[in-house]
Every structure is written in structure tokens, then in C-alpha cells.
């Protein structure tokens, strides 16, 4: 009989993966807010196990939307994209955890919701790239850049998820 322990150490499928703790800027876009998907989306990130470090409902000014998407300035859809982002309130969030940048992109799904897998947020709730419900940072550097753009100092909370909080004594 092979014990589970020796199976683990001998099988290449069980190698240890260590991931850097990162922060991602996640934003529920105006269509996600208008459609009442805020709770559903937050639930998916909580259920995955990431930690919420910042959260606010916010009406973005045009300049901020332009700056956020400045890398896409030359794209034909840029003016429409900026209009879309300022068309109503967004929910700004910072989620933290190991590998959260790539993991959040998986939870979110492909840019074009028609190509996004069912089970992803865009795959389950979207139809068009121009109304794709949610944003997630595409690199750790962009994550930090976007957090600095959308949150002021003092708006983020340092805390640790701790199951003992379920008990009063
Ligand atoms: P992602 O949000 O998946 O990182 P991009 O950075 O390429 O995707 O694009 C930023 C946003 O611009 C998308 O989420 C989407 O809202 C919008 N967008 C991208 N491509 C198109 C397109 N072809 N038509 C309309 N809007 C688009």
C-alpha cells in the first residue's frame, strides 16, 4: 500500500506552488451596478478566499476614466469606453491575496463576454465587450497604479480574515 504522503511527494502533480501576495483593482462597471450584480460579484471573490481591503460606490469623473484607460487612448472604442465608465456609479474594490491578479482575471473571464467561459462573471452575465460588467487589473504594476488612481490614502483598511470572529467568546 502506498500512503497518501508518499504519493504526494512522488507525484509531480503535487509540487508546492507559492504565489506572491498581490493586490488587484477590481471595479464593477456601471452596467453591473445598474443590473444589481454587486452582491453576486462580491460573493464570488469572497468565496474564492481573497481579502477585501477597500470598497466604495463612486461616480467617476471623466478625467479619472480617461486616465484609467490611458493605454487604450488610440483605440477606436476609447471615447465610448470613457462615456460608459462615467455613465453611472461604479463599485471600486481592492482585493488582496496570493496570485490575485491572474486569479481574478480567471474569475472575470475574457474581455468579449461572448468568448468568456460560462462560470466566469463575464461569461455568465455579459453579451458585449462594450458592456462587460467588470474590470480587473492585468498586472501587479497596473494593480498598484489603478489602486492609487481610484483610492485616497486612508480609504484602504488593513485587516486579516480570521475565523475566530465567528464566535463572541
Ligand atoms: P480587459 O478589461 O479584459 O482587460 P482591455 O484592457 O483590452 O480588456 O479593454 C478594456 C476595456 O475596454 C474592456 O473591458 C471593454 O470594456 C472595452 N473594450 C475592449 N475592447 C472593446 C471593443 N472591441 N469594443 C468595445 N469596447 C471594448
Automatic annotation (TrEMBL):
MF terms in GO:
ATP binding; nucleoside diphosphate kinase activity
Reactions mediated catalytically: a ribonucleoside 5'-diphosphate + ATP = a ribonucleoside 5'-triphosphate + ADP; a 2'-deoxyribonucleoside 5'-diphosphate + ATP = a 2'-deoxyribonucleoside 5'-triphosphate + ADP
Q: List ligand-binding residues for ATP.
A: 29, 77, 105, 111, 122, 132
**Keyword annotations for this protein?**
ATP-binding, Kinase, Nucleotide-binding, Transferase
Protein's UniProt keywords contain ATP-binding: yes
- What cofactor requirement does the entry state? Mg(2+)
* Keyword Kinase belongs to the record: yes
Catalytic activity, EC: 2.7.4.6
Give the source's domain of life in one word: Eukaryota
Active-site positions on this chain: 135 (pros-phosphohistidine intermediate)
- Domain Nucleoside diphosphate kinase-like, residue spans: 21-158
- State which residue ranges cross the membrane: none
Q: What family name appears in the similarity comment?
A: Belongs to the NDK family.
Name of the protein in its database record: Nucleoside diphosphate kinase
Could you tell me which species this protein originates from?
Riccia fluitans
Amino acid at each position: 500500500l502506498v500512503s497518501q504522503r508518499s504519493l504526494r511527494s512522488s507525484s509531480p502533480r503535487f509540487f508546492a506552488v507559492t504565489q506572491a501576495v498581490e493586490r488587484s483593482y477590481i471595479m464593477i462597471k456601471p452596467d453591473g451596478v445598474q443590473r444589481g450584480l454587486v452582491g453576486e460579484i462580491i460573493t464570488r471573490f469572497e468565496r474564492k478566499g481573497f481579502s477585501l481591503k477597500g470598497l466604495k460606490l463612486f461616480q467617476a469623473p471623466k478625467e479619472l476614466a480617461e486616465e484609467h484607460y490611458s493605454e487604450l487612448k488610440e483605440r477606436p472604442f476609447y471615447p465610448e469606453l470613457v462615456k460608459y465608465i462615467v455613465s453611472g456609479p461604479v463599485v471600486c474594490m481592492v482585493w488582496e491575496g496570493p496570485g490575485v491578479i491572474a486569479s481574478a482575471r480567471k474569475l472575470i473571464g475574457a474581455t468579449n463576454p461572448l468568448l468568456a467561459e460560462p462560470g466566469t462573471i463575464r461569461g455568465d452575465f455579459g453579451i458585449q465587450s462594450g458592456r462587460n460588467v467588470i474590470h480587473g487589473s492585468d498586472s501587479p504594476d497596473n494593480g498598484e497604479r489603478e489602486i492609487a488612481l481610484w483610492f485616497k490614502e486612508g480609504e484602504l483598511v488593513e485587516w486579516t480574515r480570521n475565523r475566530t470572529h465567528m464566535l463572541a467568546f
